[in-house]
Amino acid sequence: MLERPDGGNLLDTARDVLLKELLPHLPEAQRFHARMVANAMAVARREFVTDPAPALAALRTATGAPAGATDDLLQRLAGEIRTGTHDPGTASHATVAAALLALTRLRCGVSAPKALGKAG
User: Fold this and answer.
1) For residue 2, is it within any domain?
2) How far is it, in rounded angstroms, from Cα 110 to Cα 120?
3) Helix locations, the chain, DSSP H
4) Long-range own/partner contacts, residues 8-15 (CB < 8 A, 24 or more apart)
5) Host domain of residue 101
6) Angle between helices 28-49 and 7-17 in degrees, nearest 10
7) Is residue 17 part of a domain?
8) 62 and 110 housed in the same domain
9) Is residue 103 part of a domain?
10) Cβ-proximal residues to 54 (8 Å cutoff; 6+ apart), any chain
11) Quick check: pTM over 0.85?
12) pLDDT in tens, 19-58
């Protein structure tokens, strides 16, 4: 963070203004769109404060993947899953499954926290 308010604080403030001050004055036909914008802002805020590095590091360790771009890691993993490299009964299955679960929870916490029983 370079200065306050940071991007997360600005998103919080803008979303609050949108929902509390602007939304009540919009015609009904535009309220849905305003709520979509507010939801997008909430997702962006959660993404702003989420650090995927530990989950991705666990996945790299579990798969033995070298450091590199996240997309490369996920593409490599998808290929390994298709070929059965991490199937049940393999040495890597438990660690890869645990790492994928952690990554899934992280991603769900950003995009759909209510699915995890968290407040949005």
Assistant:
1) no
2) 9
3) 7-17, 28-49, 53-63, 70-82, 93-111
4) 8/45, 8/48, 8/49, 11/41, 11/44, 11/45, 11/48, 12/45, 14/41, 15/41, 15/42, 15/45
5) 53-116
6) 160
7) yes
8) yes
9) yes
10) 102
11) no
12) 999 999 999 999 999 999 999 999 999 998 899 999 999 9
- Is 63 in contact with 26 (CB distance < 8 Å)? no
pLDDT in tens, 66-92: 888 889 999 999 999 999 999 999 999
Please choose, from the candidates 65, 54, 39, 66, the residue with its C-alpha nearest in 3D space to the C-alpha of residue 103. Answer: 54
- Please name which of 103, 97, 101, 104 lies closest in space to residue 81, comparing C-alpha atoms: 97
109 and 116 Cβ atoms separated by less than 8 Å? yes
